[in-house]
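pinning this so it doesn't scroll away 📌
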Amino acid sequence: MLDKNQIAQRIAKELKDGYYVNLGIGIPTLVANYITEGTNIILQSENGLLGIGPFPLEGNEDADLINAGKQTITTVPGSSFFDSALSFGMIRAGKVDLTILGAMEVSENGDIASWKIPGKMVKGMGGAMDLVASAKNIIVAMMHTNPKGESKLLPKCTLPLTGVRCVKKIVTELAVLDVTVNGFKLLERAPGVSVDEIVAKTAGRLIIEGNIPEMVF
């Protein structure tokens, strides 16, 4: 199985030169550490920053430089700062090529639930509602099962939705999957993880075609 950093490392392979990318809270923020050197990727944060670098080394943090998840970050040459109105103007105008989000559940038709568990206090949906409605491509980074061992890849989400039919790809500690009109299509499996284990932990429709290769880092 992959750890959180390896999930982020695998997702970083999906970034293309020239992409403008928004990283959600949690595992997605780790993607900034694995961008290939020489690749021109511009990371955007909805609290008003364009041009995010890797996480700072311990002792080099600047408390004034934070992402939307309130984590300290670094900038890169050419970075710019602006207000939330301009930031969300970028998002709503479709200027973000790829959004990478965490999720509590994803359905087989691409619905995502990522913001609320009934009975638990939350501050609100935040920028996720704008991101899932406006981004050209959405990749979800999450664990394949919840703490109870129940699948988070479902026929239908049970939690309140953030967006409908918007997720294109999912990377978990077990697998890489595309979201298709016919369900989750298994593309890759984590090193040492069997197809049978992925089948057992996926509640939604799972498409398996031919030999499924292991991920390559």
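📌 and the second one:
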Amino acid sequence: MSAAVQQAPAFSPTPSQLAVAYSVCRSIARSSAKNFYYAFLALPKTKRQALCAVYAFMRRCDDIADDDSLPLRNRRQKLADWLDAVHRALLGHPTDDPVLIALTNTQQRYKIAPELLDQLAYGTAMDVQESPADSRTGVSAPHVQYRTIEDLRVYCYRVASVVGLVCIRIFGYRDRAAEPLAENLGLAFQLTNIIRDVKEDAVMGRVYLPQEELEKFDISPSELHSNGDSARLRMLLGSIADRAREYYRAGDELIPMVDEDSQPALWVLVTIYRRLLDKIAACDYDVIKQKVALTTREKITILGKGLLKRLG
């Protein structure tokens, strides 16, 4: 936290300011959270608003990190400035940023440790690293971000496990055993995202598959954004998927541990992501030639089953 940030009298937004702020966050989540938003819809209104606020905060972090119109050093500075603004808002300084207004209200209502929000931002900052540039074109070449599976796990913890810890504070839980389960479920989600987005990330110059795993299967980073048919890559992705499936088991244990009114939403989220991984496996992990995703109809069907669980 910036040394310049000092405790200030608590800023209390008006009900109308809060309503507008949460409406903005809901619009951000609806337009960007392709899988998460369906789970949000199965929550009571107050919890749904809270998750939208957290998502909007994360979206702002991601948008800054992914802004290729800015040099990396400028993105890092912009992330630092954004996090400083978050700290100031959490300390009670006035703000007119609707995301910060909603986030601060959510943080106070659900007693979310500010350190968890910091961890989310730090995880995003791990993406803002220098990568080798092609000497001829000046375009960033695919750059392996992490050496080992454990290195990747640190990244996944910050950008996904911490999300799980924030979510269960909003969902509500009493048993501390829920926390490691939420962490593992976050790992499952992030590994699924990494498998799905291998080509898209490589085009952006990012390779999340660990170097030791690429070497084990004799795969070069350049293969990850080509349209070639790589049986070795499919084998590697299958091994990562096996790890994700182990982590998904945490979801089965976690669902009954959160508050009853949140269980359908968590079920929807786990089911959507599990179904996505199953769909990728059914395509023999061919994520280079195609972007695998659930259809809107498939997600609405899952949501409908979740809402029935809530009504039941």
